[in-house]
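User: What would this chain look like folded?
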Amino acid sequence: MLRVPCEERSNWEALADEFGFKFHTMYGEKYWDESAYYQFSLGQIENGIEAPTEDIHQMCLAVVDRVIHDDALLTKFAIPQAQWALIKTSWENGDPSLYSRLDFAYDGSGVAKLYENNADTPTSIYETGFWQWVWLENKVDTQNLPRHADQFNSVQEKLVNRFKEIYALNPERTLHFACCKDTEEDRGTVQYLEDCAKAANIDTKFVYIEDIGIDKEDQFTDLDNQVITWMFKLYPWEFMFEDEYGQILGKQNIRWLEPPWKAILSNKALLPMLWKMFPEHPNLLPSYFEDELHLVPEDMELVKKPIFSREGANISFTNSRGEPLGSASDSDGPYGEEGFIFQQKYSLPTFDGNHTLIGSWLIDDQAAGISIREDANAITQDMSRYLPHVIC
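Assistant: Here's the prediction, encoded as structure tokens.
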């Protein structure tokens, strides 16, 4: 695994605008960065990332099955009791999932270590499935990369096929796509997924989360007063549970992407449960609930993570007793009210002074591609740069 500096395409910004990549630069800072790329061998991809991704995913599903049958665990996951039936029914009905992303620390030579599971509202799918592939094709066409250069990336093909499979379970339904207003990244992500659904011959509509209404029969509706019966929402389940309409969830004849049972996988409490159920697994880091700190070896440094959090917010480093170390890398944010978990500190690898995180994507339970984010800070966050990759 190498970080290889390279020249940027002279027209890449204009090309990005042409293809609708509106968030390549955010708040005056570069988000998409093609001044370098990461190079992998086929063995590093297949053995170091692809195989562990599918293995850990199956372990995560085993955790879901354990948690939905245990009220004490549902409480530990800070899921409101009013939503337990919704989640259990969703799992027992086999409600299908579209995609998810596992985040790993991996340097190409050791064993990939799981940081977390982004299973409900993962972003950077457009950059992964489409835009970095365009970059690869351009680089090969201009002979800046050899003809045999490849990429671990079947994201778009798998997304379209998965939409076809799920549509077969929901014939004649219109698929609504939704995200919040005033965020170009979320809107671009949802637009890409909607384009993939259209490629699967699905009838689609878009509505902002803020514009969704409720009719007199407690059905969700769009701005045309069309009842929503199938929806992809880039909006976390924990937010929905707390919103004013949370109390009526489950009363509608509606199919959700992602399904309600994903509220367990996208929850940081997943990490100590994985460690309990699969102790000493080589791809897992020791992880603990707050009431288990007495089990932590005295010399082990920890990372304190909120049960619910997004984009690396409210992450801090502590000693084995959970006492803050006061690291300059600690991140702020609005999360933590529901509690925290603790995971063994395992630093991201650094390449040319950049801390590098690998996101491994799953479509229909299959490893489908990777995204790479890097940052000068030890904790990657929403503005961490995205770099392409190749297999050579």
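The chain has two domains: 2-266+350-391, 286-344. If you want, I can go into more detail on any region.
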